[in-house]
Every structure is written in C-alpha cells, then in structure tokens.
Design a protein that fits this description.
This protein is of the alpha+beta class. 33% of the residues lie in helices and 20% in strands. It folds into two domains: 174 residues, 3-Layer(aba) Sandwich (Aminopeptidase), CATH 3.40.630.10; 149 residues, Alpha-Beta Plaits (2-Layer Sandwich), CATH 3.30.70. The protein has twelve helices and twelve strands. The strands form four sheets. A five-stranded mixed sheet has the order 1-2-6-3-7, with helices on one face. It has a three-stranded antiparallel sheet with strand order 8-12-10. It binds zinc ion.
Length: 343
C-alpha cells in the first residue's frame, strides 16, 4: 500500500525534505547562484534515485529540473509544475530559527520554502514515489517541471517552454504552487492571479541636505513619494489609476456561487494574522478580493535616514517597490503603463 510505504519512510522523507529546504535558493540574489545549481542537482539526483529520468536544464537565469516517468503512451500524461526557488528570508531577526534550518514546532515545519513551494512539490514527488514502490509502476505517465525562477517572475521559462513544447506534451497540468483550502477541506485551485511589478524612484536635491537650512524650500522626495502612494487608492479602496479596471473580467455568477459555498470565518481569518479589521475593495467579499479582483500593493519603501536617533535631512531620493495582482484580460504591460502614466 502506498500509504503504509509513506508511513514506514516518514523519517527518511522528512530528513530529505529538510535537506531540500536547507539549500538557500533565493533566486532574487545573485550570491545564491551556486546554491541554486546545487539544489537543482540534488533534486535531479533524488528524482533519478526513485525511478524518474531527470535532467537539469540551464536557462538564461537559474536552471530548471525536468523529470519524467513514462509508462505507456496509451495512458494519460500529467505534467506537474513546481519551483525550488524561494523569497528572500529577511528580516532575519524575526526568525526564531534560521530560515534554512528547518525545524518542526507544534506539528508545523518552520523554514523558508517549507511551503511555497518545496513542501508542496515534495508531497507530489513522495506521493508518486509511494505508488511506484507499492505497485511497481504508475497508472499514468508523469512529467515534472521544477523551475528556479518562479519568485523572480519566471523570466526565462516562456522561452524554455516554447523550445521544449514537444517534450512537455501532457493531457493535464497540475500546479503544485497552491494551498489546500483548510486542514480538513482539500480543494482544486482552478485559477491564480498574475502579477506585474515595478519600482518608483523620486529624486530631489543632488545630495542629502539639512532640513534646518533648506526645509520648506525644497521638495522632499520621501514626502512626495508618500503623496504619490497615497493617491493609488480611493476612499472605497479601489485602485485610482484611470482605466485600471477597463478590461477586468467580471466575476461569473457560478463562481460567485461557488465562493459562497466555501466556509468562511472572518473572526478566525483576522485572528490568524492578528488584525482588528479587514480592509479591501468595497462591494466584494474576502475571497473575491483575494482571488478574482486585481490589487495594488507597495511591497517596500526606502528613503532617508533609518538609523538610531534623528538625522535632520531632506533626503536626496526615495523609492518604492510596487506589485499589482492581475486577473483575466489584464496584461502586465498595460497595468504598468497605466500606473506610470498616472504617477
Ligand atoms: Zn510559489
């Protein structure tokens, strides 16, 4: 039985998952290039070890791992997608244990990548392995594509996909980069929002200048950037960029109905993230806001003095990073162009 195989190998599988998680595969930082390579190689070896035919493919950026277990061409083929890269773990001081030193606490694994997406990818690999070990084969053909650039917008993936279209041919694609709805309610995710990202820079004087001498006479880039950011949403929390919602696909009635069927506990939702109130686009439910409506968020803001004590300057520049979550019929270029024009 596949389940008893998993039960028997629980410790080994957990240790191997910990090994996978311990590679600091931060795709955004070039200093981790060697770690990306090592992790891709390790994954390839692991997949080869359990009966897959796996290979590391170089791309214009970080390598990806492709593996297949082909049983019979008359059987359906499933293509699994996952990624082994992770988001930067900063701020490090907020971690109880190192981000790449996985630890189990209260039944949860704490480490960067434990979810999103090493954990989920691992579940599928181990699930398939358990069937292979228990029955000697798989009842389907399986292909795995595990990339290393998901967290940096998969810049090199489209090109690679086009080049390897034939090899990737499948009847169904399963994305392992999603979550279970709740501990007791598995769900099929049938769509994910897209993303557009950009960075905004505001330049002022040619150097940081004294606010006692110049304050009042010179525009402060941080003040001005905050004014600009403050105008990105209106009082109903709608994005104020002209034409932003122009092509947005309306929520279908059947979707609305399905969303309503899902259990939703606002008190628990708020408790989990320790907020007193939710904040979002007027006229939509929480799931509609987070699943099918576009959003815009400042992910980071920089400028001026942040060290200990005070420093009386008008900073010479300020910047922020913005991402927008996109829904069907929107494109990243269109969203960024409209934002740029508005700012
Ligand atoms: Zn992910």
């Amino acid at each position: 039985m596949p389940l008893s195989y998993l039960e028997k190998n629980k410790k080994k599988n957990l240790n191997d998952l910990f090994k996978l998680i311990s590679f600091p595969t931060v795709s955004a930082k070039s200093e981790h290039k060697p770690d990306m390579k090592s992790c891709a190689g390790w994954l390839k070896d692991h997949l080869n070890g359990i009966g897959f035919k796996a290979k590391v493919y170089p791309t214009g950026g970080h390598p990806l791992v492709y593996a297949e277990y082909l049983v019979d061409s008359s059987l359906p083929t499933v293509l699994y997608y996952g990624h082994y890269d992770v988001q930067p773990p900063q701020p490090l001081e907020l971690w109880k244990t190192g981000p790449f030193k996985p630890e189990v606490r209260d039944g949860y694994i704490y480490a960067r990548g434990a979810t999103d997406d090493k954990g989920q990818t691992w579940c599928q690999i181990k699930g398939l392995e358990s069937v292979i070990k228990a029955t000697g084969t798989l009842p389907i053909n399986v292909k795995f594509l595990i990339e290393g650039e998901e967290e940096v917008h998969s810049a090199n993936l489209p090109q690679w996909l086009k080049k390897n279209k034939k090899m990737l041919k499948a009847d169904i694609a399963v994305v392992s980069d999603t979550a279970q709805f709740s501990k007791t309610l598995p769900a099929v995710t049938f769509g994910l929002r897209g993303i557009a990202s950009c960075e905004v820079f505001v330049y002022g004087p040619n150097r940081d200048i004294h606010s006692g001498s110049y304050g009042g006479a010179v525009g402060n880039p941080v003040n001005i950037l905050c004014q600009m950011v403050g105008q990105l949403h209106d009082k109903n929390n709608k994005i104020a960029i002209p034409g932003f919602y122009q092509n947005v696909k309306k929520i279908d009635a059947w979707e609305k109905k399905q969303f309503k069927k899902l259990p939703y506990n606002e008190a628990a939702y708020k408790k989990d993230i320790k907020v007193n109130a939710l904040h979002g686009e007027k006229g939509y439910t929480t799931y509609e806001r987070t699943w099918v409506r576009p959003t815009l968020d400042v992910n980071g803001i920089k400028g001026g003095y942040q060290g200990e004590g005070a420093k009386t300057i008008i900073p010479s520049m300020a910047s922020c990073k913005i991402t927008m979550r996109l829904v069907p019929n929107m494109t990243a270029k269109e969203a960024c162009d409209k934002l740029e024009k508005y700012l």
